[in-house]
Design goal:
Helices cover about 80% and strands about 0% of the residues. By secondary structure, the protein is an all-alpha fold. The protein is rod-shaped and about 65 Å long.
Length: about 80
Amino acid sequence: MIKTSTQNELIQYVYDELADDARMQLEAVLMQDNELAETCSELLEMQFLLQNAVKSPGERAISNILNYSKSLSLQS
């Protein structure tokens, strides 16, 4: 089980928020701890996916909303 402090350090590492000395220490640990390195890799992948996630509705969703809105105005 990874300690909470280590998890916090990993998140800070992924977002480039660790001080230089703490970053270097963590990188040294990552070179020797495969489980921790895998966790770090997963966090980096999640960060990448979140940064590239679609942040607006799709055309189909917009079309459905507009059609629903039009149907309400026709009923009045």
